Amino acid sequence: MLSSMIKHHQEQMKGRNETQDKLKKETIEASNELTASLVEHLNVGVATAYLNQKRLDSEAKNLHVAANNFSKQTQQWLTLIENFSSALKELGDVENWAKTIEKDMRSITAALEIAYKIERE
Predict the structure, then answer these.
(1) Residues 63, 68, 73, CA angle at the centre, nearest 5°?
(2) How far, in Å, are 55, 102, 118 from residue 106 at the CA level?
(3) Alpha helices, DSSP H, located in the chain
(4) Is 121 helix (H, G, I), strand (E, B) or coil?
(5) What is the pLDDT, as a whole number, of residue 68?
(6) CA-to-CA distance for 87 and 93, rounded, in angstroms?
(7) What angle do CA 70, 76, 80 make, to 5 degrees?
(8) What is the DSSP letter of 1?
(9) What's the pLDDT tens digit per position in 41-99?
(10) Which superkingdom heads the taxonomic lineage of this protein's source (predicted)?
């Protein structure tokens, strides 16, 4: 009777152990699937973030190049405006010089006319 009870107990333990091993394997498989699924989900997010970062880096480089080009173009415009301004100043100086010469010539003409009138009389 004791030996049959021990046998019966061992059979129950064996059945429980088999059930526990089966449940353990199922749990491990389920946890592996969950882990793989989570990693795959995270990898999709990381890949998206990586692609976005690559695009941002590319756009930043393009913006830097465009800003440099704009700076160079602005500098060229400033040079052109400065040259134009200098040319206008020179024209103003030439106009002033011409007016001064004209004024002097009128003075000389008036003096010559006066001298001529005096000499005629």
Answers:
(1) 125
(2) 75, 6, 18
(3) 2-120
(4) coil
(5) 97
(6) 10
(7) 145
(8) -
(9) 888 888 899 999 999 999 999 999 999 999 999 999 999 999 988 887 887 777 888 88
(10) Eukaryota
- What Rg, from alpha-carbon coordinates, does the chain have? 51
End-to-end CA distance of the chain: 176
Q: What is the C-alpha to C-alpha distance for residues 48 and 58, in angstroms, rounded to an integer?
A: 15
Read off the pTM: 0.49
- Token pair, residue 25, equals 């394997």
d(CA 95, CA 92): 5
Q: Which two tokens stand for residue 65?
A: 């190049």
CA distance 92 to 18: 109
Task: Give the distance between the most distant pair of CA atoms in the chain.
Answer: 176
Distances (CA, A) of 51 to 40, 56, 65, 70: 16, 9, 21, 28
